[in-house]
Specification:
heterodimer; A: alpha/beta; Transcription Regulator spoIIAA; 13 helices; B: alpha/beta; Rossmann fold; 2 domains; 6-stranded mixed β-sheet; 9 helices; 41% helix; globular; binds adenosine-5'-triphosphate; binds magnesium ion
Chain lengths: 365, 251
């Protein structure tokens, strides 16, 4: 690899060797500084230059003050390279500003929230219309996609939801038992665990888990389909994207969530019973025969209903966020994050609403 | 004898059981421009990926500039990669960056050039691929198919690397732009003497470049030589590929 050489001789500067980005970077004495340090120059001789790339040409052009020097000896090939620099349009390239002012950000955020709410309503309406359509054309019901989603979002979530439920059950039971023992109110462990897990913890826990697991996956999948124009290809083939893509996901999660809630609550109760056995010497038999008396059956229905509503919301949000991904990686990651965060927040809000409207139901008299 | 820029010997590649290359050898000397031709699915892109080190052949050795590509030292790896430029078949632009930042990316990675210098170089590359300064702010998703190709070419040219690999650079360009592309490569080649390997299905490009041709068929390099030498070979693949070319010269 050659090096850039510069010789000043009585007002004439001769360049020779290799003038390329690589050789400039590798050169020991910085040619940039040498060029800048030149004083009065009468003429330039570039005949000895073997190679001249654009980066070096730009450097020379800048040294010359953006015009041709009066005396210049140069081969036609190198002149062509320099001419390309000389012929550049004077206007600077348009620059994209990635930043955003505070006002702009707040405004855009508000608008995007409104747009998303509108989009949700629109998507919901679309799904209802699709349901009517499917009632009349049952052959178009996407059974395969439905069962695939049921498997992915439901069956494959069984191990992790059982594990999480079990551990939470043990923890709550253990901590409650410590407190109850000091008051001698051991018996109430069944009430505390039963109501809190079946009615509240089970559904919310599973919702958070599913939002992180399936919600993000759905948004990412639909988002990538948008980025790679697969969604457009589907529409072109006359396949409704809501029927084929959105509906199976929403339906599957609405069905799978209540089942997961029961499963996870059951394993939490098992964990709770185990801890009660260790701490309070409750036999399993006693624990589970007390359970129906301490926890009215309405709590189970509330838990199931919550599961279905949460599942519906998570899937609907995930699809809505996925369908509006803009075709770049940044938007994809932002939307996936937003989908999970919004889903969890919304689940907690809806849970509070549930608590208010069901306050008279399922409490032991 | 100079050291070849690309030296591939006894390359076997396969995707699972499917063998793509079988005992393939391929050499390119410094300053050569080689057009790699072959049917669709014959493994041209795969070959380029192996030259880049993105893919490791099952057997055989790949040497670039006389050094083994799979050097364990990350600094040496980076230095070799900086001497290469690649235009991917699908563009592979960074979708989260604007056109300007896509082209400036390799320049900034050097940590050597100041922003003014970079800006002028980006302008220059844009002009080389016939894009206007106002296009610099667009995002890749806002570009047409041919524009994506040209921005990707500008990014591949950003460092004016010693070895340029181009995967179908003229696919999706209009004929005039294809001609200008050929002109550009020839001019750059004269000025900096880089080595170019380009995959193409476009006879006019090969003809315009006046370059050597390597034919990939039967899972190996069937022949590598000047256009006349290649056309003279009696082989069905070559008949098929250069048929139109012959008809036209006959007419
Ligand atoms: N990631 C992969 N996994 C499995 N097979 C692959 C993969 N990539 C390519 N192939 C197979 O390898 C073969 C060669 O592919 P390659 O992309 O190299 O073809 P090509 O010569 O570039 O074709 P084209 O001119 O259409 O671009 C094809 O048959 C393709 O199916
Ligand atoms: Mg290819």
């Amino acid at each position: 690899m050659g090096t850039p050489l510069l010789v000043q001789n009585a007002g004439e500067v001769s360049l020779s060797g290799t003038w390329t980005l690589v050789s400039l970077m590798a050169s020991d004495q910085d040619p940039r500084r040498a060029l800048a340090a030149l004083g009065q120059v009468q003429g330039w001789n570039l005949l000895g230059v073997e190679r001249l790339d654009s980066a070096a040409a730009v450097l020379l052009w800048r040294t010359w003050g953006r015009r041709w020097p009066e005396r210049l000896e140069i081969s036609p090939t190198l002149r062509a390279t320099l001419e390309r620099v000389a012929d550049l349009p004077p206007e600077p390239p348009a620059v994209r500003d990635y930043r955003d002012s505070l006002v702009g950000r707040v405004g855009r955020l508000t608008l995007s929230i409104l747009r998303n709410m509108l989009g949700l309503v629109e998507l919901y309406g679309r799904l209802v219309l699709d349901l009517f359509f499917l009632c009349r054309h049952p052959r178009d019901i996407p059974w395969k996609e439905f069962s695939a989603n049921l498997y992915k979002a439901g069956a494959q979530a069984l191990p992790v939801s059982a594990l999480v439920g079990f551990l939470i059950g043990i923890t709550i039971s253990y901590l409650s038992a410590l407190q109850l023992k000091t008051y001698g109110a051991d018996l109430f462990i069944v009430n505390i665990l039963g109501i809190s897990i079946i009615r509240e913890l089970g559904p919310v826990l599973v919702a958070v888990l599913v939002a992180g697991r399936s919600g993000s996956a759905m948004t990412a999948q639909i988002g990538v389909m948008r980025v790679t124009e697969e969604i457009d290809a589907l529409s072109t083939l006359g396949v409704s994207r809501t029927i084929r893509v959105v509906l199976p996901k929403v339906a599957a999660l609405t069905v799978a969530m209540p089942l997961l809630v029961v499963w996870s609550s059951a394993s939490a109760l098992l964990g709770g019973a185990l801890a009660a056995f260790w701490q309070l010497d409750f036999s399993f038999n006693y624990f589970f025969s007390m359970l129906p008396k301490a926890v009215p059956i309405a709590n189970l229905w509330i838990g199931l209903a919550k599961g279905a509503v949460f599942g519906f919301l998570i899937a609907l949000l995930a699809c809505q966020f996925g369908l509006h991904v803009r075709p770049n990686t940044e938007s994809l990651s932002m939307r996936t994050t937003a989908s999970v965060v919004t889903a969890i927040t919304l689940v907690i809000i809806v849970d509070a609403v549930f608590a208010i409207f069901t306050r008279n139901l399922g409490m032991p008299s | 004898m100079q050291m070849p820029v690309i030296d591939m010997q006894g390359i076997w590649s396969q995707y699972r059981e499917v063998v793509i290359h079988k005992d393939l050898s391929f050499q390119v000397q410094p300053g050569e421009v080689v057009s790699l031709v072959g049917g669709s699915g014959s493994g041209k892109t795969t070959l380029l990926r192996e030259i880049l080190g993105l893919l490791r052949p099952t057997r055989g050795s790949v040497r670039l500039f006389g050094t083994d590509l799979h050097d364990p030292d990350p600094i040496r790896q980076r230095d070799i990669r900086r001497r290469l430029g690649m235009l991917f078949q699908q563009g592979a632009l960074f979708s989260a960056l604007s056109v300007y930042d896509n082209i400036a990316f390799p320049l900034r990675e050097l940590r050597f050039l100041d922003e003014d210098w970079i800006r002028e170089l980006v302008l220059l590359k844009l002009a080389m691929v016939e894009l206007e300064p106002k296009h610099a702010a667009l995002m890749p998703a806002e570009l047409s198919g041919g524009m994506i190709k040209r921005v990707a070419l500008a990014r591949a040219l950003a460092l004016e690397p010693e070895l340029l690999l181009l995967d179908e650079p003229t696919a999706g360009l209009d004929p005039v732009r294809s001609q200008n592309f050929v002109q550009l490569i020839k001019e750059l080649q004269r000025a900096i003497g880089f080595t170019v390997v380009l995959v193409t299905h476009d006879i006019d490009t090969i003809y315009g470049l006046g370059s050597d041709v390597a034919v990939l068929a039967e899972q190996r390099i069937l022949i590598q030589g000047s256009l006349d030498q290649v056309v003279a070979l009696d082989h069905p693949v070559i008949h098929q590929f250069f048929e139109n070319h012959r008809n036209r010269s006959a007419a």
